[in-house]
Structures are given as C-alpha cells and as structure tokens.
Design goal:
The structure is a single chain. Strand 4 and strand 5 form a beta hairpin. This protein has two domains: 135 residues, no CATH class; 115 residues, CheC-like (Chemotaxis protein chec). By secondary structure, the chain is an alpha+beta fold. It is globular. The longest helix has 26 residues. Helix 2 crosses helix 7 and helix 9 packs across helix 10. Strands 1, 2, 4, 5, 6, 7, 9 and 10 form an eight-stranded antiparallel sheet that branches. Strands 3-8 form a two-stranded antiparallel ribbon.
Length: 293
C-alpha cells in the first residue's frame, strides 16, 4: 500500500506528473510478483491452493500468507522466506521513475526520507507487511479532511484500499480527500450501513470508467455499459462493506446492519453531518468513493 500513497505524495508536491506516474505504475502492475505466484514457482503451493486462499480473501480481511498458514499450505517460516523474495513496491516505483528520468537516485533518497518524516514513519521500517506503518499512513491521509479519524474510519479506509489492490489492481493513486457540502451524482452505487448512526458509502464515476473498473473486478472484458457492469460495482461495494461488518464484529463486537446496494443515476449526495470524497485515480479514469453520515 506504500506505493499508492507515495504516488499521492509525489503528485501533491508536483515532483511528477500524472502521466509519469501512470507509465511507471503500469509497468509495475505487469512485473510485480504476488506471494501466491512465488509460492507456486517455488513448488510450495499448487494453483488450486493459491486460488482457494485468494477466494478466502473475499470473505475475510486477511493477508494471503496468513490464510495459507491457517490452511496448512505454508509454514510461517516459509511465508517469511517468500516475503523476503519480494521487493517492496514503493522501492520499485521509485526506481522505475528514476529509470524514466523523472528524477535522480539522489532525489529518490531525499524523497523517501522526507516522505517517511512527513508521514511520521521515521521510527518504522517500511517492510512489506508492516501494519503499524500502514495504519499511520492512512491516519495521516485522513487528517487532510481536518476531521478527527475514528478507529472505525481508519479500519474502513484500510479495507477499502486493500480491496482495491486485491480485487481491482494496484496501479492507482488516492488523490487528496475533500470534505463536501454536497456531491452531484454522475452514476453510482450506494449502500447503507447502520450502527448507532446511518452511514452511506457511494461509488461514483462516469460510465466508461465504470466499464473498465467492472472488467478488472469481474475478470471479464466488458465492452458496453450494461447490467453486468452495474452488478460488478454492486458486488465490489457489497464485498467491501461485508468485510467491514465482519471486522466490526470480530474486533469490536459491534453489530452493523448492511442494506442491499442501490443504483443511483442522478441527484445530490450529502450527509447530515459530513460528506467526504476519496478520489481514486486509475489509468482508465477516476473513481470517487464517498462517505456520508
């Protein structure tokens, strides 16, 4: 997840352009080896076992290695060994941008130092599976809204970014979140979550971007905007919120009521207290994920 937020950092400060970032991240998405792929090539897991672990991730918010250990496919020592064979994506992104001439290695060294300091990560090593670092990055990202993030807000955002990475693609960058009085809907899917208060999550985008997003999520090549595209967006939102419901129950013993997704093609979205837009930019377009309550 460091890569996506490093991209946001570089864009915010004008160090690189969106075009340079897209070109670099597109190359990363084609060369990045997943833990499951490495496990197969090392002869430690079969393809069916990897697919099973990936399916479990759609039901439980767990890392691939954690699931593989629970099912007896890998030992903790083997997972650690496989992780060591991976190169953190943020390092690969930085090196790719150096190769593309966006900046020098000397610049990269300074950028990483400044990024860690500004994100309050100076005492944390940026290894691949460092949850403390991830939580710190997300909390810092949320603070831009000038609202105090609740522990459930942090958990939800981490789930959201993990779901995008796992089920749509890693080649995105979160843009700076915005607090809005209201948001004019283009097209989207909304879903209500009820605890003590009602919260609404809304995914909004144009139809061409919706087609590309749905194609990736469903692993099918959709060529036109239709009911299958809509169903894929509904399923992604239901998956994300379903994981949130499970985590609320497991970690905090909180009961959350989840309503069915609703398609919204026009109108205004606004919350009684707050409406926050978290824009996510992929090479195929911008997806707005909004929270209102």
């Amino acid at each position: 997840m460091y890569t996506q937020f490093l991209g946001n950092y570089l864009l915010q400060r004008g160090i690189i352009t969106q075009e340079q970032l897209f070109a670099a991240m597109s190359r990363l998405s084609k060369t990045r080896l997943k833990l499951g792929t490495i496990a197969i090539t090392e002869g430690l897991m079969t393809a069916n076992e990897v697919d099973e672990c990936l399916f479990v991730q759609t039901r439980e918010d767990k890392r691939f290695g954690e699931i593989a250990v629970e099912r007896g496919y890998l030992t903790e020592e083997q997972v650690s060994s496989l992780i060591n064979k991976q190169t953190p994506d943020f390092i690969l992104l930085g090196q790719t941008l150096v190769e593309d001439g966006a900046f020098t290695n000397e610049d990269l060294e300074r950028i990483i130092f400044d990024y860690k300091n500004e994100s309050e990560l100076y005492d944390i090593s940026l290894d691949i599976e460092n949850q403390d670092a991830i939580a710190s990055i997300i909390e810092n990202y949320f603070k831009v809204t000038e609202t105090k993030p609740h522990k459930l807000n942090i958990m939800y955002l981490e789930l959201m970014f993990n779901s995008l990475i796992r089920f749509v693609g890693e080649d995105f960058t979160p843009l700076t979140p915005m607090v809005l009085d209201e948001y004019p809907i283009t097209f989207g899917v909304s879903q209500s979550l009820k605890t003590k208060y009602e919260h609404i999550t809304h995914i909004d985008t144009d139809r061409e971007t919706a087609i590309a997003f749905a194609s990736r999520y469903a692993n099918e090549e959709f060529t036109e905007f239709n009911e299958y595209v809509i169903a894929a967006l509904e399923d992604f939102l239901n998956l994300l919120n379903g994981l949130f419901v499970v985590n609320c129950s497991n970690q905090y013993s909180k009961s959350v009521e989840l309503a069915p997704p609703v398609v919204t093609e026009e109108g205004i979205l606004k919350g009684e207290n707050l409406c926050i837009d978290f824009p996510i930019i992929y090479s195929f377009g911008i997806v707005h994920i909004l929270f209102s309550y």
